[in-house]
Amino acid sequence: xxxxxxxxxxxxxxxxxxxxxxxxxxxxxxxxxxxxxxxxxxxxxxxxxxxxxxxxxxxxxxxxxxxxxxxxxxxxxxxxxxxxxxxxxxxxxxxxxxxxxxxxxxxxxxxx
Length: 112
Hints:
seven-stranded mixed beta sheet, 28% helix
């Protein structure tokens, strides 16, 4: 089962589409779990505790905070960062902190 924490900035149309298409998706929003005002480090910490991948459009600060956690020796459950520019045809980059590979629906796997 895919367990996700949806950041406040994430497009609700995309979220509804994911929920319709992925039958075993276990997604909660930051709002639903009382983290709607939480900072990125708090969201990342909560996601690790709950074993959830953070889903966001935040390309500016979320990757920085995830990298900072890893440099401090702390775990990151994972990040899924979606482009905000093409919400009708989103492209996802799934980052696994244990790998240098990024997955996308188009390329399936791309390693840097």
